[in-house]
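Entry 14. Two folds queued back to back today. First construct below, sequence then structure tokens.
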Amino acid sequence: MLSSAGLRWAGVGAVVAALLFAPSAALADDVRGGQRAVIKTLELTQAWRVSKGAGITIAVLDSGVDPGHRDLAGSVRVGKDFTAGANPAGVAPRRLHGTYMASLIAGHGHGDKGRFGIIGVAPEADVLSVRVILEDEEPGFREFNSAERFEHVVAKGIRYAVDEGADVINMSISKELATREERAAIRYAISKGVVLVAAAGNDGERDLDGDFAPYSYPAAFPGVVSVGATDRRLRRATFSNWNSSVLVAAPGVDIMGAGPGDEYWVGRGTSQATALVSGVAALIKAKYPDISPPLLAQALTAGATDRPPGGYDTATGFGIVNAPRALAEAGRLAGHTETATGTQVQDPAMPVAGGQAGRIKVIVRDENRVTVYTAIAGAATFGALASLSVIFLLVRRVRRAHSSQDA
């Protein structure tokens, strides 16, 4: 059983979107059958007629991906390990969580025409494995959570993935606190057109004082697609965080996936839901490579199904991601842009802070409105002066009357 993996953040141990694994003894053809519910919910068969993610690279910031798994072989590039030195020398990473997530995103199956094993949402996409966490059973887990040199591994991993050409970054990880470095890295990624998808977290069953579950990072950063998990009835899974950062949801209970060494696993968590949404983002980027991250996020929300009453709630966001509907919405939005340009645009390498923007330059001056507002202000001033004059005269009359009576 894998309970969680951790990250050090300002001295506080934080938890990856937790998993509950049970090994599957099923044969490979039974594995594909175990994915039917997800394939049906996301309507992947219909979406694959439009896109399968070809040409897209999804960076999986996680515990590492097994490039030799038969359902991922040939699709994985092993990138930098930002946890190097945490485990004792000679100890190989387990790569369980990362392999599992990668298979849900870009597994291509195996055997005759790939009919067996795990099929990911974007089976023709490539995976860049970036190791930024340790599984909690690895011997270096405590060192990784306490040593200062590992404090900013996620921020470093995001920048590395962007510079290595990632189109989508999957972060099935969750931390309790935000840092300046990670916020800046996210802004950098978005400025380069990279889509970021992260897990909303699994604290939904905790005893809470407020009316919502805690915010988790990087999911709660502006610009990141924050994903909640649903159960078999397509309602919020009891463990899934609910708060206003949740943008969309996806299945997150009893999800079949691949593990290292050609194994298969069944698990639950917002991790799995996040990986599925990253796969849908890859389908969109493959079809519309120039679509900006904000517009892609809008396509995900506009195309969602099972929308809550009123259109949004903190449990499942705008609803459950639907691949063909999101692709259709992306086609409608792809010709537009939401990218700001010019000399006064905020430096993407810097977090938002007061005083950086400087003085505001007036671009358009509406003379008619200026005249009207000036006239209104003048009339108001005149009225105020007239009122003061009347009050002054009344006061003088009252004083004179009192003087006459005294005389």
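Second construct, same run, same settings:
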Amino acid sequence: MNREFVKKWGTLLLLAAGAGIIFQLPYIRETFYPQIQKAMNLTNSQMGLLSSGYATMAILSYFIGGAVADKFSARKLLTFSFIATGALGLWFSTFPSFTTARIIFVLMGISSIITYWSACIKATRMLGTEDEQGRLFGWQEGLRGIMNALLVFGMTAAYAHISRTAGEVAGASAAIKVCAVVVIIIGVLNFIFIEDTEKNEEGESVLELTKGLFKALTIPRVWLLVGIIFAAYSVYGLIGYVNTYAVTYYGLSETMGSTLGGIRYLLQGVGGIVGGFLADRYHSRIKVIVGGCVLLMISFGLYIVLPVQAGLVGAVIGNFFFGLVFIYAVRSQYFAVHQDAGIPVEMSGRVSGIASALGYTPDLFMYTLVGSWMDQYGAAGFKMTWGYAVAAAGVCIVLSLVLSRVIRSKANAAENGAA
């Protein structure tokens, strides 16, 4: 087997595993929301505040991480990120006070972002040619989902086993410990297998990097990329409430709800890989984003019209699976679309940092907002949440079409200039 092939796909696998698993702890609510809420006696609004605290610190970290990715070798810092995040996860597994938990999530906003995310995107982009960008990001998303699924199934098994003998609180704690230990192991693997490179002493200064960030902000296409990620990420975040909705109003067991979290990541593998190949087949990442968002509007619209009856739990789960395939197809492409937008590779780190920092700002307010809706309005609050998702998917479609028009105009202008 070709050595370069093994190195390329082995690196992609490690990047995908790290990109997924390191975020399991700060986004633990996606799989164990009811269990953590009960163990810590938190309201939906307080659960939202944990996510908001993480997001607030992550915003700054994305900016810094984008600059770091364009300048420094990350091997030792990557290792620190995983081990620090894992240690914070072990601390959270003790279910401390709400105030302490908020501090933990703020610290994870530093440890899980600043030295990993933009570097991961840039490294993935550099693994292949322009024609391979869709499938590389698709495979990264898909492999990330498969690794996440294996981890969540292990966490769910630990939760189910410990809950039977020691109670649900101990079970939830055990599940978080399993995740934290795996994160630490990934950190060790990064230290062993990621090639270290020397610091670029002749590279840009901090001042030049800062100027580079502001220069990137003057590019209109960057703002369109930010808007696309903002809207698509809103839809992605809101779909995580479906298993909680099914547990609370449709009679699904909590263990089965967590199992759905694992199945969700298997469908991430399907959606990511299919989205990537479709993007390369039709030579357009934007078409995948638009098509996926149209189907997501239909999926979330079904939650709004579906009556709240226990007998319809199968329809809720089926629609959940349907929506997952398309949200992950969309998510696999909203960084690959940087290639379509003509972003130079040397600016990839800082642009992905900017796009992530601003595009992920729904984390600052969205979970607290919808949590307050759920506390105040119950099932109707969930319906309001689904309406929010429909609107966000619609905005993503509009912005994607605008970006497509800008790209075509730029290409036509270049052709006319050449003529």
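Quick look at the second one. The radius of gyration is 21 Å. Residues 197-202 have pLDDT under 50 and may be disordered.
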